[in-house]
Amino acid sequence: MLTTEFSETKKAWIELRMQANYWKTQHAKAIERETVWRAKVQELEETLRQQLHDHNAQIKELTQKHNKINHDQDKRTKKLRKRVEELNAQNAWLKQRLFGRQTEQIKDSGKNDIDKNDPESSDDSDKNDNGKKRPRGQQKDAPGHGRRSRTNLPSVDVFHDLKDHEKYCPICSLPLNLLPITQDSEDIHYEVRLIRRRHKRKCYVRTCQCEKIPKIITAPPPAKLIPKGMFSTDFWIHILAEKFLFQRPMSRILQTLTMEDFYVSQGTITGGLEKIRNMVYPLYTRILERSRSAGHWHMDETRWMMFVVVDGKTGYRWWFWVVVTKDTVVYILDPSRSASVPKDHLGENPKGIISADRYSVYKSLISEDLLVAFCWGHVRRDFVRIHDTRKKLRSWAQEWINRIGELFHLNDKRLEVLSDNDKFQVADQILRKALDSFRETYVNELKSENYYSIQRKALKSLGTHWSGLLIFVDHPKIPMDNNISERALRELALGRKNYYGCASQWSGDLTAALFTIFQTAKLNHLHPKKFLKAYLEACARNRGKPPDNIDDFLPWNLSEEQKSAWQYPRASP
To answer: How many angstroms separate the CA atoms of 477 and 326, rounded?
Structure first.
């Protein structure tokens, strides 16, 4: 029985050992599988972790690219908006120049301070009694100025008589008696006549036996500006004044002659003008010398077309320089716009003051003895342009325009009392304080970082040119602006528009000479045509050559009789 129990116990033990070994094996396999799966999980986690890292890096990179694109897009958008704003401003400025009001004259500066929102301070001077805007010109029922007496014009009596059948009574047919009185009225008549003058020179035969003189003596021929030419001096004066004083193209001048039944080719006129160039050029050089010796010059320049080929120069654009002094207006034609032109004109070591704009050429002329007074008118135009083209900055620009206008006003008040030293000192101090306040204002505004570039550019220009802008303070006779030289360029601009320029070198020399002669005569209150006529008549008496006494024809050397004979009836236009 024990054996049986032992046998069963042994079997049970063996069974349990077998099960224990089985489960040990299964456990070992499970641990092995767990190790494998753990390794796989770790590998998968590492892979996922790397993918996540790569994904995050990619997201970060894409985000950075996106932000950069957005930044570039914003930058480009701002740039395009700025460009659009600049183009709109440029378009507004060009429209203003083409269609807008061109004059820089303004109303009384005191009106600048009127509060438009205050009905009591509004300007009603341009309104009528009904509150409507007053029409321009002479107002209804307003007293007139009366008809002007034209006693300076020569008078011609023209008699008007009745027709023969009207000299009898229509009822009884008895004749009417002529009274020693007339009923008078007058009108202004304009008459242009082209005539063919036949010069008949009387001949005399000697009655003596003297052989040293010709047998027949003939009266001398009339003086001709161009020997053997068909035109009189007065005819040439008309041509020169029409072309170089009134800026009419030669084709139009010849058309007006054609309407008077006179036909002449342009080549004939051109040939005569080329000869006249040699006559007027010496007078031109004398005026140049006078201009060079001055102590104050107004300078400016503008383009001029010269259709000639010059070695080393591309294109046909030349430059006309104008130099205005107290008694001369000089025009210099040159292919260059460089500093060599004013340097050659002023000569070596010039002393004085130049009034000019802010062109870099004039800045290069500044030295210890030569100063450049910059134009306040150009400074004002910087702010006028901002006012006319930038709506957002209009009020800001208007404030600066008012400040500059106040400086002009204070300087005018100072000049009014220039002869009274005490009053002048008071006015001078007021002006200097205003300039100090002006400078302090623009310096403070330059410190702001919220201004547009166009604002900063205008304010920086003030600081750059400030010393030149103050020259008029210590030299009261120096104007604040350079308008006188700009006005002298108007004739050139009109000629450039009407006949484009010149087609030869001699034509350019003639243009410069006659512009100088005509405008210098006007500056000295001389009649341009009468002045040139006197000079050309002297050339005609010298057989078509410049007279020996050229200096006697210079405006500053004329006698009082000559000035009176050649003067305008009123101030020169």
So the answer is: 11
If the chain, 573 residues long, is cut into consecutive pieces of 10 residues, what is the mean pLDDT of each piece? 70 80 85 86 88 89 88 87 82 77 59 41 52 73 75 88 89 89 88 89 88 87 90 95 95 93 93 95 96 95 93 91 96 94 93 95 94 95 90 92 95 94 95 95 90 91 94 95 94 92 94 96 94 95 93 94 85 45
Amino acid, res. 210: C
The tokens describing 155, both together, are 């008078």
* Rounded-to-integer distance, Cα 224 and Cα 233, Å: 7
Contact 329, 523 (CB under 8 A): yes
At 329-367, the pLDDT tens digits run 999 999 999 999 999 999 999 999 999 999 999 999 999
Burial class (CB in 10 A: 0-12, 13-18, 19+), 398: middle
One-letter identity of residue 55: H
Spans of all domains in the chain: 1-41, 201-375+482-573
- Residue pair 515/491 in contact (Cβ under 8 Å)? The answer is yes
The model's pTM is 0.80
Give buried/exposed letters for 142-171 (b at 16+ CB in 10 A, else e). Answer: eeeeeeeeeeeeeeeeeeeeeeeeeeeeee
* DSSP reduced 3-state for 132: coil
The letter for the amino acid at 464 is: T
Quote the tokens at residue 205: 């035969």
Q: DSSP assignment of 287-331, as one string?
A: HHHHHHT-SEEEEEEEEEEE-S--TT--SSEEEEEEEE-SS-EEE
Dihedral pair phi/psi, residue 100, rounded to 5°: -80, -175
pLDDT of residue 301: 95
266 contact partners, CB below 8 Å, separation of at least 6: 250, 251, 254
Nearest-angstrom CA–CA distance, 149 and 198 = 37
Report angle CA 555, 556, 559 to the nearest 5 degrees: 80
Per the CB < 8 A criterion, the answer to whether 292 and 347 are in contact is: yes
C-beta neighbour count of 12 within 10 angstroms: 10
Residue 106's pLDDT is: 60
Single out the residue of 553, 539, 549 nearest to residue 227, CA to CA: 539
CA proximity to 377, closest of 481, 486, 457: 481
- pLDDT for the residue 120: 41
How large is the C-alpha radius of gyration of the chain? 46
**What integer pLDDT is reported at residue 458 of this predicted model?**
93
Handedness of CA 15, 17, 18, 22 (dihedral sign): positive
